[in-house]
Design brief:
binds erythose-4-phosphate; globular; 11 helices; eight-stranded parallel β-barrel; 222 residues; single chain
């Protein structure tokens, strides 16, 4: 399962590229806002960080756009800025039409804000390169997500769609485990979620035991 960072903060991206050999990046309008920089400035900086790699960077079109032709127009503009850019489009009738058109133009897309298998199916039919089911948002409203990724994965496999699942809005280690076992191709989460997922209180406890043993081991000159 590929590890994507969900962020538009350049220091976080540099850190995860350096430490984790990040597989790709996802951004959304919230992350762009949190960067504190204008949209085009920050995505140009991000493009520079991924230049010369084949790592995908999802950049979302203006979420106010409801006309598919306008979505396509902006998607084409974004795709010309960097070969890494994947055009992120919200799930809707116009969004799926735009995904279909962008796909026909050879532009990779990421169908975002996916909350049901039927939306994932429309995205796959339209040719979406990535499909992003939102796990954390569903759970925040009390919905179970136990079978969500599994069902999307099974739908894609059974009907031989090539789209890859990015399990999105991931909040904790348990969700990383669940989506990995359910067949997500990629996972995207914030820096802190991944850093937490590398830790465990038992590991800290174990390190203390080993440090004590190390300190009590006779030295070479004893
Ligand atoms: C996915 O591509 C989205 O950017 C992301 O996971 C949305 O959720 P969040 O920003 O609430 O984590």
């Amino acid at each position: 399962m590929k590890l994507f960072l969900d962020s538009a903060i350049t220091d976080e991206i540099k850190h995860s590229l350096e430490y984790w050999d990040l597989d790709g990046l996802t951004t959304n309008p919230k992350h762009i806002k949190n960067s504190g920089k204008p949209f085009f400035r920050v995505i140009e900086e991000i493009a520079g960080l991924f230049s010369g790699t084949d790592k995908p960077v999802s950049v979302e079109v203006d979420p106010h756009l409801t006309d598919w032709e306008k979505i396509v127009e902006q998607g084409v503009k974004l795709s010309k800025m960097s070969p890494n850019f994947v055009v992120k489009v919200g799930a809707s009738e116009s969004g799926f039409k735009a995904i279909r058109e962008l796909t026909q133009l050879g532009i990779r897309t990421n169908a975002t804000l996916i909350f049901s298998v039927s939306q994932a199916w429309h995205a796959a039919r339209a040719g979406a390169y990535f499909i992003s089911p939102f796990i954390g948002w569903k759970e925040a409203y009390g919905e179970s997500t136990t079978t969500f990724i599994l069902e999307v994965a099974e739908m894609l496999e059974r009907h031989e769609y090539d789209s890859q699942i990015i399990a999105a809005a991931i909040r904790n280690s348990r969700q990383i485990t669940d989506v990995a076992l359910a067949g997500a191709h990629c996972v995207t989460a914030g820096l802190a979620v991944y850093q937490e997922s590398m830790q465990n209180p038992y590991t800290v406890h174990g390190e203390k035991i080993f440090q004590a043993a190390w300190d009590e081991t006779p030295s070479e000159d004893s």
